[in-house]
Design goal:
Blueprint lengths: L1 H12 L1 H20 L9 H9 L5 H9 L3 H4 L8 H16 L1 H7 L3 H32 L10 H28 L4 H27 L3 H22 L2 E5 L4 E4 L2 E4 L6 E5 L6 H16 L6 H11 L4 H22 L2 H11 L10 H34 L4 H4 L4 H24 L17 H4 L3
Antiparallel strand pairs: 1-4, 2-3
Helix pairs in contact: 2-9, 2-10, 6-7, 6-8, 7-8, 8-9, 9-10, 10-11, 10-18, 11-18, 12-13, 12-14, 14-16, 15-16, 16-18
Amino acid sequence: MKRFIQNIKNIWKVEELRKRILLTLGLILIYRVGSFVILPGVNYTALMNAKASGGQNTLETLLSLFSGGGFTNASVMALGIMPYISASIIMQLLGMAVPAVQKMQNEGESGRKRINNFTRILTIVICALQAPSYLTLYVESKGAMPPDASTFWWIQTILVLIAGSMFAVWLGERITDKGIGNGISLLITVGILARLPEAFTAEFGFAVGSGNLIKIVLEIVAFMLVVMGTILIVQGVRKIPLNTAKRVVGARAVDEQGARNYLPIKVNASGVMPIIFAQAIMTIPVMLFAGAAAEGGSFITRTLGDIYGVSYNVLLGVLIIVFTYFYTAIMINPRKIADDLKRSGGFIPGVRPGEETAEYIDSLVSRITFPGSLFLAIIAILPAIAKIAGVNDAFAMFFGGTSLLIMVGVVLDTLQQIESYLLNRHMDGLMEGTRVKGRRTANELSGF
């Protein structure tokens, strides 16, 4: 406890870090307030009555989780950050197939700014397509539409939803530039964490009501073990030893690259994207056949609409493994890494520079990607396992899936940034004396 208080004092002593943290908290507060500002004319009471009567399906619960409740509240930020994330994914995929986008990616800072501008424009387009669907499929279906909804109301409400989503993107970018941590990821994490107290309270109340306090203790222990395992895998790195060129300074041979003596390859290089891809693919058939009366349509809806069913989770696990290999191939380019090593005079001991190095790195990435993909698949189906074990739906969502990976990844990244500020001012870091590898090494900062 004494060490924790000293760390807080050290953080408060660094003026720049203090200002960044306060700005981040202020912008997050604005985002949270915005998620409770209801769209004009919407009957909020009807929405709450529909929610209380169990009229909220699994997809709505998931979308509400990522928007911090803004989706189910029909707030001005109901669409949240997800349109921007969808636009970013589309731009990444276009970077593989469109030469013009590839050229922008290779132009450095100017290319990055142009890609960001195109991403924002695409976000507006996606919001314009999603807003009418949201009003029709959710707000109107819950009986919350104004009785005299005119064309003017539709136009103004769609514009408000677009503006709310873009304002959330602006808040995230300001946090990234002027605050601490990745702003977009932080807003998603805050939205997820906002639902945790309610979910835990519901589970705790159920356990107390049934007189089974041991159950809640075991659930907390299991949750902590899952979080610890997630941290270990997220930070897992395969270190490839490197020999670097040396230069002579005076009478000494000095390592040209300083502390860079290994090439780190992450076990989970794809992050949370494979789960997002797989869940998006799984929801498309449900949305297409939602109103189908045919037997085939109803069968698809029953099979893929039940996220706790065996068929759904088996198919989800297979898709995650496939998408993990796909996204890792996007993130890691062995040929580019081999070329960069060759130009800098570095090489892997026992492996010839150039083509042979690229093949060696590719084979190594393929081998370590398999356990990483299995881990993601297990994490994705853990909520279903928790549900079978008797955990309520709301709390089971935190036992795995996208929410857990995002929370762990964002918290670690934010702690690493705070750690860097403290270490740069010769103070003890947050991770000092712990087994969590929170410090950014020279290899991680080098961009390899």
